[in-house]
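Pilot study result, target chain (103 residues):
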Amino acid sequence: MLDSKIIWSALAEVTDPEMPVSIVDMGMIYDVRLHDGNVEVDMTFTAIACPAMDMLISDVHEKISALPGVVSVKVNVVWNPPWTKSRLSEQGREVLQSFGVAV
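Predicted structure:
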């Protein structure tokens, strides 16, 4: 049965195209709502001019749409609160540091 935990797991499979860090570990997902198979995701980006924005939104749609029981997917791009590195999970922080990114 579809629940928010399954959706969060699917979102954790979507990774940044430049670093092998999931958008969940990057802290880019602000909220997930599920109602009768309709999924709504609030996500942000690390920068307003993120060149991967369209690709990541498409990847989110694709991953969630593939889940059994999903009727529709809506992705809301939100900028408030703004993303900061404090949103990184410990795993996300470790991966970025392994690539030499100071976080």
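One observation from the pilot: The mean pLDDT is 95. A full batch analysis is planned for the follow-on phase.
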